[in-house]
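Standup notes
- DV: blocked on the single-chain target, sequence here:
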Amino acid sequence: MSTIPLQQHMTQNSRLPFSLPAWIALAPFEEYLGMEIREACDGRALLIMPFRVLHCQGAGLMHGGAVTSLADTALAIAIKTLLPEGTHFATIEMKLTFHSPVQWGTVSAHARVLERKDRDISGKVDIITEDGVKAASFQAVFRVKRAV
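- DV (later): unblocked, structure below
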């Protein structure tokens, strides 16, 4: 059982109430959604997430926000494999195209870094259903925090 106060409100100047166990690890939100890191090395990552009822939108399909969260996290993990531990970076741009709905099973996110220009790192993620159908394509740009 987690000792992280998940319901604690984050306020201005509040301290982070958790720490990640390692550089390549999932944050509380990602764990809440059920994500798992299966592989992470050399600018690539493979994450999975089971389709749970909490991921449903009104028609019973996986909510687009859950799909987007998985894709964004997978690319962030792929980027972490290329950066020094402790580097701060964040998503600054993203695009997700849906190809097929997720209706059941476990989805996988296959992420790869494509390019780095100065502080910006771009990449792509394919979201694949358990039966091998490409459900979505994701592209994003992350920016590394400027050195002080």
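- Follow-up: The radius of gyration is 16 Å.
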